[in-house]
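TICKET: design request
STATUS: open
ATTACHED STRUCTURE:
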């Protein structure tokens, strides 16, 4: 019986056979997990280094466009998010013993700033499950008052994001229901009206009090929790209309307008991603084509577009879009296109050529892993194992690398279980970098 190897970000369900490694087109349980991780780091962690630097101050700056003048002194009762029964019990039963760490619970007399500082440190280290546990403990403790709007939303967002990053997306989806309907009037407040303003005749729209990252994440999680993908599509379109309305405001600062443009572009990509998850590839293709025609895409958006085009099997369009990249970007996507077409021998040569480019060292780990996947598909099992093990020794330990190496162990040895446990020990002894989830599940090691 063939071992279970996963290929996440599938090019197309009909364009190639199902495979079982995690390569460059792979899609984890949550396809936007990397973006959630990025938001957690950029929005919640602004300090790294000594413990004295973790003050908890970053939890007040989750959304740079939050209506500060409206939130200050606003009386909103968010006690429904502080209820103990909102939060599931978390355990480390599914985590290998070598990777387990003790849950941190605030003491009865501990100051809020101290708990927030500890939470920042856990996030910076990559202990996402421990951070999720601490968020729940703080939210249900007397330290947080029901009207501390910014703090409650920041902690709730961090809880959901960390659950997702630690492989507990279903729990996060269930807990996101506590927000109920984010489009209800409860979450909107009217701006303070200034009669002296010159543009007093302009329409004034209510402002949402929840931070933007939480709204975007909650839309996806609630669509999972309620088992309704169309709910997610509708939610993205709804906040997309709000983003367009903000962009059209004549009194908006240019820097803020650019942020709203980036948010709108991001929503478009997320919509296509959700359509792919729903299996509606035709609608995804039309939506993506519409985005390419109407939105002036930056480099990141174009990169995401190419990956989505490969996900729906539209290889020709992806190749045309790659023409717009510079030499470095074109070189990166050339082997991806070869893999999408099943030309793994050619992809091996192209990945090796990329590794010889001296100015791409920051991408070496991902390139090497993709090389190992191609080596595996071309029957060069020993070479694939050598490449993956060298990455672990470097040291690297991202999720797809761990999964792929565990798969190679299953294919090449009768003692795969012992080899996997050795892999667990090797990763447990790696230095903490803060770029990888440390609370890894047994499933990542195929244990």
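STATUS: resolved
RESOLUTION: sequence designed for all positions
ATTACHED SEQUENCE:
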């Amino acid at each position: 019986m063939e071992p279970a190897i996963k290929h996440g970000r599938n090019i197309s369900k009909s364009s190639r056979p199902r495979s079982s490694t995690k390569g460059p087109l792979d899609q984890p349980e949550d396809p936007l997990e990397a973006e959630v991780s990025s938001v957690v780091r950029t929005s919640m962690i602004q300090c790294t280094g000594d413990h004295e630097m973790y003050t908890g101050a970053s939890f007040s700056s989750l959304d740079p466009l939050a209506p500060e003048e409206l939130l200050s002194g606003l009386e909103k009762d968010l006690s429904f998010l502080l209820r103990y029964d909102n939060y599931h019990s978390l355990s480390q039963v599914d985590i290998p013993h070598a990777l387990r760490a003790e849950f941190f619970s605030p003491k009865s007399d501990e100051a809020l700033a101290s708990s927030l500082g500890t939470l920042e440190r856990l996030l910076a280290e990559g202990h996402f499950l421990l951070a999720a546990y601490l968020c729940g403990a703080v939210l249900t403790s007397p330290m947080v008052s029901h009207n501390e709007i910014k703090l409650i939303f920041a902690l709730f967002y961090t809880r959901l994001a960390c659950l997702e990053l630690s492989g507990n997306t279903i729990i996060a989806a269930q807990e996101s229901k506590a927000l109920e309907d984010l489009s209800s009037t409860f979450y909107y407040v009217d701006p303070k009206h200034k009669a002296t303003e010159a543009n007093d005749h302009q329409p004034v729209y209510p402002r949402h009090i929840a931070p933007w990252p939480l709204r975007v994440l909650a839309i996806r999680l609630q669509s999972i929790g309620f088992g309704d993908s169309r709910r997610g599509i509708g939610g993205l379109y709804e906040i997309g209309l709000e983003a367009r309305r903000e962009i059209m405001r004549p009194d908006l600062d240019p820097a803020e307008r650019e942020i709203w443009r980036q948010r709108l572009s991001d929503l478009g990509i997320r919509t296509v991603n959700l359509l792919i998850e729903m299996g509606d590839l035709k609608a995804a293709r039309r939506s993506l084509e519409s985005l390419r025609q109407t939105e002036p895409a930056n480099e990141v958006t174009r990169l995401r577009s190419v990956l989505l085009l490969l996900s729906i099997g539209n290889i020709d369009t992806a190749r045309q879009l790659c023409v717009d990249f510079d030499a470095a970007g074109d070189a990166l996507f050339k082997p991806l296109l070869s893999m999408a077409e099943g030309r793994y021998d050619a992809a091996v040569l192209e990945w090796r050529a990329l590794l010889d480019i001296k100015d791409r060292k920051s991408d070496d780990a991902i390139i090497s892993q993709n090389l190992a996947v191609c080596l595996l598909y071309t029957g060069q099992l020993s070479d694939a194992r050598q490449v993956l093990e060298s990455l672990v020794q470097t040291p690297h330990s991202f999720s797809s690398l761990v999964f792929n190496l565990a798969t190679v162990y299953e294919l090449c040895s009768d003692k795969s279980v012992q080899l996997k446990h050795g892999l667990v020990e090797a990763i447990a002894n790696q230095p903490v970098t803060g770029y990888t989830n440390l609370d890894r599940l047994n499933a990542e090691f195929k244990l």
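CLOSING REMARK: Residues 1-19, 27-39, 41-51 have pLDDT under 50 and may be disordered. The first helix runs from residue 33 to 44.
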